[in-house]
Amino acid sequence: MSAPQIIRTPGGEELVVLPRAEYEALLERAERDGEDADDIAIYDARKAELVAGGVVLPPEVSASLLNGKSRLKAVRAWRGETQLHLSFKTGIGQGYLSDLENGRRAGTPETIAKLAKALEVPVDWLL
């Protein structure tokens, strides 16, 4: 790392000049640290939920949630179900099921209960 150049403005403010590569490395590290902080916050929130008697999901489902899948999609995949098969089992349209999985629509309590029964999981797993 080269020594940064410090420039003082007429108002007394100090400005730092450094090579672009070092600037970009700092930005990259800040972004990575921010992602780490977000992950820690999610972990802390989930741990607090567990302590408060929250839902304990199978590791495969939890891993899918960490990778951005919805609970419904993660549980369905964990159960080895396709959207089409789950649609036939529940009488819920495949397009509607897709909308539920992708957060475009929110299911009614009855719909969520029907899905939970078909997937053989507690309703809380899908909320």
At the first level of CATH, what is the class of the largest domain? Mainly Alpha
CATH topology tier name of the largest domain: 434 Repressor (Amino-terminal Domain)
What composes the largest sheet?
A: 2 strands, antiparallel
Shape: elongated
In total, the number of strands is 2
**CATH homology superfamily of the largest domain:** lambda repressor-like DNA-binding domains
Number of domains: 2
- Our Rg estimate from Cα atoms comes to 24 Å
Description:
By secondary structure, the chain is mainly alpha-helical. It folds into two domains: 5-51; 59-126, Orthogonal Bundle (434 Repressor (Amino-terminal Domain)). The chain has six helices and two strands. It has helices at residues 20-51, 59-66, 71-78, 83-90, 94-101, 109-119, and strands spanning 5-8, 14-17. Helix 2 crosses helix 3. The termini are far apart.
Outline of this structure?
This protein has 127 residues and is mainly α. The chain folds into two domains: 5-51; 59-126, 434 Repressor (Amino-terminal Domain), CATH 1.10.260. Helices cover 59% and strands 6% of the residues.
Please outline the helices and strands.
Blueprint: E1 5-8, E2 14-17, H1 20-51, H2 59-66, H3 71-78, H4 83-90, H5 94-101, H6 109-119
Helix pairs in contact: 2-3
Key features of this structure:
434 Repressor (Amino-terminal Domain), elongated, mainly alpha, 127 residues, 2 strands, 2 domains, two-stranded antiparallel ribbon
